[in-house]
Amino acid sequence: xxxxxDSPGDGALIERFLEMMAAEAGAAANTLAAYRxxxxxxxxxxxxxxxxxxxxxxxxxxxxxxxxxxxxxxxxASALRRFFGFLAEERLRGDDPSDGLPRPGTARxxxxxxxxxxxxxxxxxxxxxxDEERSPPNLRxxxxxxxxxxxxxxxTELVSLPRAVTRSNQPYLILRGKxxxxxxxxxxxxxxxxxxxxxxxxxxxxxxxxxxGKTHLSRVRLFxxxxxxxxxxxIAPERVSPHVLRHAFATHLLExxxxxxxxxxxxxxxxxxxxxxxxHVDSRRLVELVNQRHPLATIVxxxxxxx
Length: 307
What we know:
elongated; 52% helix; mainly alpha; 307 residues; hpI Integrase, Chain A
């Protein structure tokens, strides 16, 4: 045992760690909740002696995760590593035993992406509904989908937008995303028009652009609306979600020649590595790009220029 004999128990130190993560690292509420669950569960497994655990105890803890998905193991191990790093920095431990934790890594799976044809089908269905009736539900749906696909918003960012998020002649939104970080997000003329038409239906004193009861539209309801739209557009509902539309926004921009750094800014990714997952463009497109754009594309057969 290498913990300081005067250190508080697991519960108090877990809360101190979470306070640090919120204040200094700017961790989002969802991230903090996940850390709390993982740390409390680890403490319970070690009978309230997580702070005192050595490498062997953590190795046994890691073995108990054997039946979990690799991504879950990686998340739990990451939470514990950060926790023990915090204890060491605060001099509440004289060592860091986290080498005993598993390092499964996480396989970066390619995101599900809709084709341009799929997206066209979604918007055709929206247009059909608006042609029939420009009702509040149809106008709201149009604004939601325009912002998901046209600006790449996260579901949480979208449903919690303030009513006054758009301004005349301002081609961008100012959002507060993960970790409280602010960023500028472009908004197209058609998306702004859809939002303004919907906003005219929302009471001027409402705090949210998409109100629902005493608060705003829930992420669950947004998910349901997107899947209902997909089914009506002839697309398998399980293929479509708010996050899939965000993926489509990113992928289609890259296919159109967008710069990866610009895309990172628009998506609000802290790490460019997260954005790089969207570089999974069609191999045929890569071949065509090399054949058309590479300097050697005009040189063939031992240096003889193309006729």
